[in-house]
Amino acid sequence: MSEKAFQRIYTKLTAITKATVTLEAQGVANDELALVAGRLAQVVKIKDKSVTLQVFGGTEDIPTNAEVTFFGEPPSLNVSDDLAGRFFNAYGEPIDGGPAVEGEKRQIGGPSVNPYKRRQPSQLIPTGIAGIDLNNTLVSGQKIPFFADPDQPYNQVMSMVALRADVDKIILGGMGLTNDDYLFFKNQFESAGALHKIISFVNTTDQPPVERLLIPDMALTAAEYFAVDKNEKVLVLLTDMTLYADALSIVSNRMDQIPSKDSMPGSLYSDLAKIYEKAVQLPDGGSITIIAVTTLNDGDITHAIPDNTGYITEGQLFLRADPDSGKVIVDPFRSLSRLKQLVQNKKTREDHSAVMNTSVRLYADAANAKTKLENGFDLSDYDLRCLDYAKEYATRLLAIDVNISIDEMLDTAWELFGKYFTKAETGLKEKLIEKYWKATEK
Amino acid sequence: MTTGKVTGIIANLVTVEVNGPVAQNEICYIDLAGVKLMAEVIKVNGNKASVQVFESTRGLQIGDTVEFQGYMLEVTLGPGLLSSNFDGLQNNLATMEGVFLKRGEYTKPLDENKLWDFTPIAKAGDQVIAADWLGEVKEGWLPHKIMVPFSFEGTYTVKKVAEAGQYKITDTIAVLTNADGEDVNVTMTQKWPVKVAVGGFVEKPRPFKVMETGVRCIDTLNPIAEGGTGFIPGPFGCGKTVLQHALAEQADADVIIMAACGERANEVVEIFTEFPELKDKHTGRSLMERTIIICNTSNMPVAAREASVYTAMTLGEYYRAMGMKVLLLADSTSRWAQALREMSNRLEELPGQDGFPVDLSAIISNFYARAGYVKLNNGQSGSITFIGTVSPAGGNLKEPVTESTKKAARCFYGLSQNRADKKRYPAVDPVDSYSKYLEYPEIIEYLDEKIEKGWVDKVIKTKYIIRKGKDAYEQINILGDDGVPMAYHEQYWKSELIDFVILQQDAFDDIDGCSPLERQKFMLDLMLEICDKSFKFNNFEECMTYFKNLINICRQMNYSEYKSEQFEKYFGQLKEELKHE
Ligand SMILES: Nc1ncnc2c1ncn2[C@@H]1O[C@H](COP(=O)(O)OP(=O)(O)O)[C@@H](O)[C@H]1O
Ligand SMILES: [Mg+2]
């Protein structure tokens, strides 16, 4: 961050907590940046002469006589086409050894798009993964997280989806990424020859957690530049939003706010919504799609972070290990794409939504049969067929290592229906059965 | 006019030192380098007023000046509200410049240049009071009444009403003389503070009619009364918004007001993109013509969320006073409660349960109480039916917003995660959900007339079958398929039949999505006829196969145009199946 001539300098802190410092100062504006003992900080509270700053790098070591310099402006990012192909830290400073980016200086965390100026999302984003394309179809302009336990390969799946998606720019916002995962992303992008369309803002585990709070806004300011100014299709990857929310709670707890559920700040919903709602389909063709990761604690989606996320995002993709098929699958019960109906049967084959619903319903019957089995009851012929179906459905369609076209997914599903069930058992519309039913030997 | 200076800032809570009198809920504007930020007084202590700012406070400084306005947050009422897209403060979103919302940009809610075809109703010499009709203009196809402003107290004598002709909303269309002999001019527009309920009616009788929605699990099982209240609590993804959109599309109402309160912008886009293309099933007119959107999505200023539901209610009361049937939908009232919580925490008020303000319950019930069926001064009637969604944290209904709302609303449409997981949509839980209106003698009588004598008994019987089916299912799960008598299987499958054919309804299917009452009656009668039969199955698999087949045929019927050739074909198939029991 550049320093300016008219800077005001103070050297007397009146209070220090783990994440904040307080001092007496004048002419300070809400949200403005400052340097506290060389660390970047932002104004979060002003009361008469007393100003409280959140110090992104943490307050370890900071003495009461630390030098505080105010910048007179909120955090910003220089935007231009030169952002493409570059790697930055949470402050928007290059970490790839390249020069600083020249361009127009834009405040991050800026205003929202007028909802009336939005357009309805309508472009399908195919991923080749049937657990997504068939059951939870993604659409440009959507915001959707992966819900996954920390041991699931969510970053791998996310990079796979990003590289298969037909977009102009991919912006990675890494929060609390392990160095290995950071290098993994870098390698993936490099070996796919996609570096020129990637922009990364990364905070790794060895960097201060509060810095993470800047990452989503940095990534989305860059995204808005390409989507709004350049009418490009932009995909933003945010991983891991749970670590972002943890950083929020560190700051709010230091500011004596009354914590709400799971020690999260009461404003968690609004804080997350401000980020996710940046996903947009613009009238002139540009779009921002957000795919995020929210790691779970032991699959618990009622925890405040996934719970608030689910209320904000347009669905969620739930990853879990499936013991029957031995694969990682996109769980069809807990996953949802709320925008799927905007493209299914319209941009895809007419039988798409019917096939999706039926295949999931039969999978639910299999889950019931499994419960029966676990409770030591005899299974009916139908139950047994359901179980066989479920195993094949999981292996051939739900597993994340599937990579086929949507038509192939639909054909596979019809093949499974014909193999394991009667027409009546599927409850499908007769019109579709006449056209697509595939009878096979029982 | 009172002015003040900023002395404290935490997020959108700003403390102002004032130099004169201020009122609770008074509106003020904070000057941020020339940009005026609107704010509302929410607490006063000595010469310090705490105000909640309806905009981002980035860049605000200690010492910035504040001007108090002497009025509360108010809305502008008049012709031209229908088909509009407003934000929570009633700014017209369509007339705003640029792609991004600009701080401090406030737009006029109504078009002041448009000419309206006015026809007088009152005539010189008439005695009138607030909310009496003076004339009307055609707003789309609806007769929009021009009324004596709600704020007028006492009786007035009409001195003059404008002749039929074209007028702008700001033109004087009547001159009234008050008790002191003073003349006052009346235009087609007036203002009203949103947090104050609009009066203008003589009584609020108990609701006695049912509002048809085309959604079977509501109309058949738990009908909502015209002028009634209901709420839809449910975990995310269980279908709150889809259900509300279905109501907005299909309900038999004159005016639909949708308050998108702290939820997704794309859901609002869906409405203003699709509604202009869709036809109102009752009038054949474009759906957008009867719809007003109040949009304060989750990324818009938090303080305006609270305002948005009150703005929506006030617009509803305005149309109700014209004798219209208004359906008000708010998605989600929990976001409004959360906005109250955020502010209460910043004010360092003593928190109630889960950090919500202690008076949450009172706030919610006051709001619901503004809905209702009313008799107007002129003997006509109007109504506001209100249905809000609730988004309980973690899907757990034991939380303050759900519990407070349960006390205030008369219909409970609880969405179940389990049903949603199984894609049994709408996921309204048939056992837990209820409509208190089914217990109203007025409503029972109304349904006797409207559908058939004894209808509510049939509904109760249907609910009984569903409950018995659930019990049977639990027994089967505990004891195993072979561990229970055949009758249990039959009971269970009869309830599955009702579930699949009556309860489940595909909101995205053109035909199944909307089911008129007549069709609902036909199908319910048919299902009850089947449930009345006793079958003799040799084993439970036979029972299952038989019922699955019936379900399949009935679903084909649901997907077919009512009484069409195709429908009759499946009906014939069903009758055939029912012969060999
Ligand atoms: N009646 C219905 N018919 C078919 N699908 C439905 C129905 N209700 C809900 N859904 C499915 O559930 C998803 C989530 O519904 P939504 O109303 O957005 O949930 P909520 O508002 O409770 O979070 C929808 O996108 C749709 O796929
Ligand atoms: Mg919703």
SSE layout:
The complex is a heterodimer of chains A (442) and B (581).
Chain A: E1 8-10, E2 13-16, E3 20-24, E4 33-36, E5 39-47, E6 50-55, E7 68-70, E8 76-79, E9 87-88, E10 104-107, E11 124-125, H1 130-133, E12 138-139, E13 143-148, H2 154-164, E14 169-177, H3 179-191, E15 198-204, H4 215-229, E16 233-239, H5 241-254, H6 268-276, E17 280-281, E18 287-295, H7 304-312, E19 315-322, E20 327-330, E21 336-337, H8 352-374, H9 381-398, H10 406-420, H11 423-426, H12 430-436
Parallel strand pairs in A: 9-15, 13-18, 13-19, 14-15, 14-16, 16-18
Antiparallel strand pairs in A: 1-7, 2-3, 3-6, 4-5, 4-7, 5-6, 8-10, 11-12, 17-18, 19-20, 19-21
Helix pairs in contact in A: 2-3, 6-7, 8-9, 8-10, 9-10
Chain B: E1 3-10, E2 13-18, E3 26-32, E4 35-45, E5 48-53, E6 65-72, E7 74-77, E8 85-86, E9 116-120, E10 127-128, E11 133-139, E12 142-147, E13 156-161, E14 165-167, E15 172-177, E16 183-187, E17 190-193, E18 201-203, H1 216-221, E19 229-233, H2 240-250, E20 255-261, H3 265-274, E21 291-296, H4 303-320, E22 325-331, H5 333-346, H6 360-369, E23 372-376, E24 381-390, H7 400-408, E25 411-412, H8 417-421, E26 434-435, H9 441-450, H10 455-479, H11 486-503, H12 517-532, H13 540-559, H14 565-579
Parallel strand pairs in B: 8-21, 19-24, 19-25, 20-21, 20-22, 22-24
Antiparallel strand pairs in B: 1-2, 1-6, 2-5, 3-4, 3-6, 4-5, 7-17, 9-11, 9-14, 10-13, 11-12, 13-15, 15-16, 18-23, 23-24, 25-26
Helix pairs in contact in B: 4-5, 6-7, 10-11, 11-12, 11-13, 13-14
Bound molecules: adenosine-5'-diphosphate and magnesium ion (MG).
Concise overview:
With about 450 residues, chain A is an alpha/beta fold.
The largest chain-to-chain contact, stated as pair and per-chain residue counts, equals: A-B, 83 and 76 residues
Fraction of residues in helix of chain A:
25-40%
Query: How far do the termini of chain B sit from each other?
Result: 83 Å
Q: Give a quick account of the main beta sheet of chain A: strands, pairing sense, barrel closure.
A: 10 strands, mixed
